[in-house]
Amino acid sequence: MSLACENLTLEIAGRVLCRDLSFSVEPGQVWGVLGPNGSGKTTLINVLAGLAQPARGSVMLDQRPVAVLGDKLRAQAIGVLPQHEESEFWGSVLDYVLLGRYPHTTVWRVWGHADEAAALSALRQVELAGFAARRYATLSGGERQRVRAAQLLAQAPRYFLLDEPLQHLDLSRQIQMLDSAAALARERNNAVLMVLHDVLWPARVCTHALLLDGAGGAKAGTAGAVLTQANLEALFGCKLLPAAAQAQAGFVPAL
Amino acid sequence: MRATGILVAGVGVAALSLSAALLWGSAPLSVHEVWRGLTDANAGAARDIVWHLRAPRALAAFACGGLLALAGVLLQALLRNALADSYILGVSGGASLGALAATMLGLGLASLHTAALAGAVAAIAIVFGVTFRGGQWNIYRLLLSGVVLSAGFAALTSLILVLSPAAQIKGMLFWLMGDLSYAGNPWFAAMLLIALTLGAAALAPRLDILGLGETKARSLGVGVAALQLTVFFSAALATTAAVMLGGAIGFVGLMMPHAVRLLGVTRHRLLAPMAVLAGGSFLTIADTCARTLWAPQQLPVGIFTALIGVPCMLYLLTRRA
């Protein structure tokens, strides 16, 4: 059981973002993906989810090429929280979350009571159950982000690919989002891969890390081996200071 | 439960509007006479009026309004744009140009219909060609090419209006405003309306998801490219069939989906059939007004769709706020 990429080369507009990248995301793991702007993090997520074709190489879901899976089968296994959603949604928050159940419906059996229950339960997990009847368009940016996370929870895939899941969230909601991500892996044996920008978080929640430098180079491995001061300073081209609090180590930017 | 109630109310309104269209006309017939005309083969003049004049006209109006509203729902979902209406594909512009050119050349009604159809198909072909260039689908290109093409058609239409003899201009204006007096056989449009409404209801969950944007829709397992093509051609077919019946009737395609949404219906499973019922009823009522209020003079129904629709929409909008 894994979502693995083999000899993956990603290009955008003729520019090579990463070359011959191989790594495997397995149940129970939490991957943090870091890299400067435009280094191919979103492209990687789209390729892993089977939504875009890599320039070379392949992505395998449980030893089967993700490109040949049926649309719904793939969506039952892999869920994506896109960074940007050009949505125009006129319905309620509950309607919005319910759409996450689509991969589990058939032409003859659309959303039933079980799906509504799953959607409500997902809303409770992001502490927005009281917003079920609100129109999605009236929500704040942070609330929308949490509702989008709830939609993904309702989808209930085995692999969660999160593109900047912390955007628009206040500090306590950031912690909550990261806790939920870790719990998905630890308690339900799912796998999470998320793009993060803050260098403080990955060392605390990620078991594994992937650094993309955007010029063809990439480092993948366990968090302890990859998230070193030297690696992160080279990646972002700025000085870092080590920070430790209650036996948790991390880094903060040095000014 | 609530959905069933709304749907029953919609069917009720549709039945009322069709009854009104059968009851009112330039010939004064009582309810009893209309009923006899409907059911009794020996009712004489009443039977002719009801079966050969009012019923086809009512059905044409209902089918035309339903098709326009359905096209509006489909295109608003496809373009994720609340301002999209059934004419965004340039269909009405192309059909108008064809019809007016045929009128100016003094061709008969059959040639006029053919020319209008040719204009509509040409518009759809151009918009589709521009949008789907290189196998890549781009909804912004669709929106813009439709708008640009409509502007071009409008210019050519104005040119024809300016060059035409005065005697022809009134007929042309009726076509441009939308008018159901020369609607042909409405059965094809009615069948098409039923088929497309069922199709839209079957695609409803996917239409809902299309509102989330293409990336998210694909990640949820929706075959977006095939869905977009289906929606595009269904909307084009619906609009073309409607325009062939009644010319360029404005307002219905844009406003009916919004009117239904303002009632709190947003899921396409209910939105599509409700918009069809609302659009059909609305145009049937508007057309009944258009042919009776100034009788025996008939007015273009497009005037009434705006005159009835604008205050109703303004009321719904303020009620919400």
Helix coverage percent of residues of chain A?
A: 25-40%
Give the number of domains of chain B. Answer: 1
Strand content of chain A: 25-35%
H/I helix tally of chain A: 9
CATH fourth-tier homologous superfamily of chain B = ABC transporter involved in vitamin B12 uptake, BtuC
End-to-end Cα distance of chain A, whole Å, is 43 Å
- The tally of structural domains of chain A comes to 1
What is CATH's topology name of chain A? Rossmann fold
State the order of secondary-structure elements of chain A, H for helix, E for strand: EEEHEEHEHHHEHEHEEHHEE
Give structural notes.
The complex is a heterodimer of chains A (255) and B (321). Chain A has 255 residues and is α/β, with parallel strands linked by helices. Chain A has one domain (3-253): Rossmann fold (3-Layer(aba) Sandwich), CATH 3.40.50.300. Chain A has nine helices and twelve strands. Chain A has helices at 41-48, 71-77, 93-98, 113-125, 141-155, 171-188, 202-205, 223-226, 229-236, and strands at residues 3-12, 15-25, 30-34, 56-61, 64-65, 78-81, 159-163, 191-195, 208-212, 218-222, 240-245, 248-253. Chain A has a six-stranded mixed sheet with strand order 6-7-8-3-9-10, with helices on both faces. Chain A has a four-stranded antiparallel sheet with strand order 2-1-4-5, covered by helices on one side. Chain A has a two-stranded antiparallel sheet with strand order 11-12. In chain A, a hairpin with a 2-residue loop joins strand 11 and strand 12. The longest helix of chain A has 18 residues, at 171-188. The radius of gyration of chain A is 18 Å and the shape is globular. The N and C termini of chain A lie far apart (43 Å). Chain B is an all-alpha fold and 321 residues long. Chain B has one domain (2-320): ABC transporter involved in vitamin B12 uptake, BtuC. Helix content of chain B is 77%, strand content 0%. The radius of gyration of chain B is 20 Å and the shape is globular. The relative contact order of chain B is 0.17. The mean pLDDT of chain B is 89. Chain A binds chain B through residues 46, 49, 51, 70-76, 78-80, 82, 85-92, 95, 99-100, 102-103, 105, 107, 110-111, 155, and chain B through 80-82, 202, 204-206, 208-209, 211-216, 218-223, 261, 266-267, 269.
